[in-house]
Amino acid sequence: MNGAGKSTLLKVISEQTAPTAGRVELGANVKIGYFSQHSLEVLNPEHTVYEEVYSRVPDATIGYVRNLCGAFLFSGDDVHKKVSVLSGGEKSRVVLATILANPVNLLVLDEPTNHLDIKSREVLLDAVKNFDGTVLIVSHDRHFLRALATRVFEIDHGEMRVYEGNYDYYLSKKKMGH
Q1: What is the DSSP letter of 130?
Q2: Do 82 and 46 contact (CB within 8 A), yes or no?
Q3: pTM for the model
Q4: Residues near 18 by beta carbon (within 8 Å), at least 6 away in sequence
């Protein structure tokens, strides 16, 4: 449901914005990676793909940065493309590479597949499936949710309901009126 505050909740959890009431307490070892379409704005348009990824992991080897770029479909001369000429999907892949280049164990994704081409969606899906941590997602992308969700939190009219199962379990419970 739009306007329910889902994006705001994710921003508060990931410390992108302050809560209007209450407080957020994260575990001592929680390291957050936050991604939304607004994340694309933090990219330096003058950097190449390689420079942008390297700027987030300056201690990394050339090989590590190239492998990371390759995992997000930037190989060969693609790593020398300027950020300014990349498509939205390519920029999203750069941002995800920079997030996953660092040791995070909580990945917060706010509508991550919005404006992504099919190739970028699949790269993102594979990266998240292989992510060894907790993923918190707000999405209307049913394919994405079916592939990833193991618990569903439904927020509607200021109330939250938890469904202890995958996305299909959630849909079946909704059909039954639970």
Answers
A1: T
A2: yes
A3: 0.86
A4: 12
Mean pLDDT by 10 residues, the chain (178 residues): 72 87 90 88 94 91 93 93 94 91 91 86 89 92 93 85 94 85
User: What is the structure's pLDDT at 2?
Assistant: 58
Residue 135 DSSP SS3? strand
Report CA 164 to chain centroid distance, whole Å. Answer: 22
Go through the chain and tell me how many residues it has: 178
Tokens for 158, please give them.
Answer: 């200021």
d(CA 74, CA 153): 35
Residue 141 token pair = 């992308």
Q: Where are the beta strands (DSSP E) in 59-150?
A: 106-110, 134-138
Closest by Cα among 81, 72, 98 to 47: 81
Domains and CATH numbers, the chain: 6-21+29-175 (3.40.50.300)
* Neighbour-count burial of 112, counting CB atoms closer than 10 A to its CB (0-12 exposed, 13-18 middle, 19+ buried): buried
3-state secondary structure of 13: helix
Contact 6, 73 (CB under 8 A): no
Angle at 94 between CA 57 and CA 33, to 5 degrees: 65
